[in-house]
Amino acid sequence: MGKLQKMKLEAYDNSLMTGSPVASVEVPVNPDNYKLTKDIGHSENKEQGQKDTTVHFNKYEKENLSFSVVFDGTGVIPSTNMNTVTDKVKELEKVVYNCNNKIHQPNFVRIAWGKLVFCGQLSTYSLNYTLFSSEGVPLRVKIDMAFSRAVSQEVAVKLRENASIEEVNVEFKEGDTVSKKCYTMYDNELVAREVAKENDLDRFRNIEPGTQLVFPALK
């Protein structure tokens, strides 16, 4: 029988999640469940002379992952003590919540547990303390978290498997934008700033046709 796999959260300072993680935390007790929400965007059209509004598919919206974890410092779990809850909360918040001074926002987080691979950024965070010592030290906390996806599931799996999406040079044509190319390459237009930084651009709009930009590898 194999060793029980623990959920692991790794923090990165860029939305492409390249390089080594800046921090990580392993959950002592795995969640009972998790919830994946996938939204679809629609547009409404009402043609002249019609009473009803026609709904048309527009695009796939952001995906969200939510789950809860419990930190326990009662000693029931091996290698835990009265300081466990406080220490683990600080460790978790360093990964998912605290502001990274390099990017002036919370880290981008890769969440891996079994076949679940989700790369995103924290959207909601709630702590519910339910047990205390006689001195008021918290001994148990339930933490509810939700994350918005930063990269596509395909890219997330490649990250999980330490595979690579090779670095490529892309020549821009009339009407191309960095955001559109990022959506094609990474399924995420929000990484345009990272690509602009990689190419030493002070802006990423109105790229001249014929310009070649490097789209970095994901590892």
The CATH topology assignment of the largest domain is Elongation Factor Tu (Ef-tu), domain 3
| CATH top level assignment of the largest domain | Mainly Beta
CA distance, first residue to last residue: 31 Å
Specify the overall morphology. globular
Low-confidence stretches: none
Structure classification: alpha+beta
Secondary-structure element order, N to C: EEEEHEEEEEHEHHE
InterPro entries: CIS_tube_prot_N (IPR045361)
Pfam family, one: CIS_tube
Organism: Parabacteroides hominis
Domain Contractile injection system tube protein N-terminal: 3-155
Structure description:
- This protein has 219 residues and is of the alpha+beta class.
- It folds into two domains: 8-43 and 54-160, Elongation Factor Tu (Ef-tu), domain 3, CATH 2.40.30; 168-215, LysM domain (Membrane-bound Lytic Murein Transglycosylase D, Chain A).
- Helix content is 17%, strand content 40%.
- The protein is built from four helices and eleven strands; from the N terminus they run E-E-E-E-H-E-E-E-E-E-H-E-H-H-E.
- The protein has helices spanning 84-96, 153-160, 178-186, 192-198; strands at residues 8-12, 23-26, 34-45, 54-72, 99-100, 105-106, 108-113, 116-132, 138-149, 168-171, 212-215.
- Strands 2-1-7-8-9-4-3 form a seven-stranded antiparallel sheet. A two-stranded antiparallel sheet has the order 5-6. A two-stranded antiparallel ribbon has the order 10-11.
- A hairpin with a 2-residue loop joins strand 7 (108-113) and strand 8 (116-132).
- The longest helix is centred in the middle third of the chain and has 13 residues, at 84-96.
- The chain is globular, with a radius of gyration of 21 Å.
- The mean pLDDT is 84.
- Residues 3-155 form the Contractile injection system tube protein N-terminal domain.
- This is Contractile injection system tube protein N-terminal domain-containing protein.
- InterPro entries: CIS_tube_prot_N.
